[in-house]
Amino acid sequence: MQKEIQDLVNAGEMLPLMEEFYTIQGEGFHKGTAAYFIRIGGCDVGCHWCDVKESWNADLHPPTKKDAIVANASAYSKTVVITGGEPLTWDMGPLTSALKEKGMQIHIETSGAYALTGTWDWICLSPKKIKLPQPEIYEVAHELKVIIFNKDDFRFAEEQAAKVNDNCILYLQPEWSNRDKMSPLIVDYVMQNPKWKVSLQTHKYLNIP
Asked: Which domains does the chain have, with CATH numbers?
């Protein structure tokens, strides 16, 4: 990558854009809501069950000017979801500032593994055992979404729930490939521990992106 472009990426003025699309939010608190998704490439957290592993290598995704991303998003929706990959790999300040100038509501889905940058109306924290969240994000997360792949993930979920702020909404979500096994366990767990809610990947049931 040319140094000039790399400098712009490092500054958040350009970002490795994997894909962008208008769809229905499928998970968590805002499920069922129309939103424009911006998927940023680059992630070194490395979850073995990740369903977008093609996002991991940022070099595979073209550096795109933030103004072009904003123009595309503002043509479709007032709600934008920035996801990845791990979007906080990059400085999100310039992109979110430009989106805010257009009056957008901006959500992020993040593992919290890197320092929180940018301005957000909704922060979905989905922590991973491999690379734990930065301490400061627990205080500002609006929802905690823990992916349940095996029984030990319930223990991890409780560890993470003990760290978030009192207003944070708690979700347990079955990992898609293991949903038939884990969903009944999640249902039982939530019934016994009603501070939690069940989150499902409803977009996959609806066969939409």
From this structure: 3-205 (3.20.20.70)
pLDDT of residue 13: 96
From first CA to last CA, the distance across the chain in angstroms is: 30
3 is annotated as contributing to ligand binding? no
Residue 46, annotated ligand binder?
Answer: no
State how far the Cα of 13 lies from the Cα of 90, in Å rounded to an integer: 10
> Is 91 annotated for ligand binding?
no
In angstroms, the Cα distances linking 186 to 25, 82, 126, 189 are 21, 27, 16, 5
The strand ranges marked E within 41-104 are 63-65, 79-83
Place of tokens 């000017």: 65
Q: Is 47 annotated as a binding residue?
A: yes
Q: Is 127 labelled a binding residue? A: yes
Tell me if 168 is assigned to a ligand binding site. Answer: no
Residue with tokens 């906080």: 88
51 annotated to bind ligand: yes
Residues 6+ apart with CB under 8 A from 115: 88, 134, 136
Q: Which of 50-59, 91-100, 141-150 has the lowest mean pLDDT?
A: 50-59
Residue 94 is assigned to a ligand binding site: no
Torsion, CA 107, CA 55, CA 150, CA 139, rounded to 10: -30
